[in-house]
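Hi Q.,

Before the meeting this afternoon, I wanted you to have the magnesium ion prediction in hand. No need to reply - just skim if you have a minute. The sequence and ligand are here:
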Amino acid sequence: MSYITLALAKGRTAKSSISLLKNIDIHFPGFHEESRKLVFYDKEEKIKLVFVKAVDVPTYVEKGAADIGIVGKDNILESQADVYEMLDLKLGKCKFVVAGKSQQLEEKQKLTIASKYPVIAIKHFQKKGQSIETVKLNGSVELAPLIGLADYIVDIVETGNTINENGLTIIEEIEDISTRLIVNKASFATKSENIRQFINSLKSGLE
Ligand code: PRP
Ligand code: MG
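Predicted structure with the ligand bound:
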């Protein structure tokens, strides 16, 4: 019996991802939001669902621990994982921005940027020829400029509430983000029929 292992990001977009699967008739009978279980099988035992931290989904897929993954573009970019990105699921739409206390970046030889996404931050400022030092944080990034830990932040904005409520301003927009379907490169060859079928039904579910 050959099933596809699907790594799904826990958290914000989990519920809408599960609904999307439901729309294409893939049901996980044991799944409910409060469950602490991390592994589920769909009714027809075609798919094994594993719930992992969003930031780890690209790693599971790159290493082949999962054949496919559903995760935000933010984590795909930051991980630099060597995977195929096959589909934009258009869930969890938001964007990467540079934000700070001022309307524009100050002219300084080296800026200190706090972020959960140092790779993204470095790439963005490299393109502009601005040298930076990064401070890696794991959350509440908006606090960093307020408390003098960094000059600016690179973070995600969805509604804008968090930056607004903390008196920060968007200075630059970096890139749009949404949930994507990624595929392990070897699995795409060995389980090609199952994976293609899955992708095609997801595609039609999105239409
Ligand atoms: C995310 C992100 C922003 C906020 C954006 O943080 O890092 O802070 O959401 O959403 P908004 O524009 O709708 O306010 P999250 O809530 O995941 O918390 P964390 O950064 O502390 O992990
Ligand atoms: Mg945050």
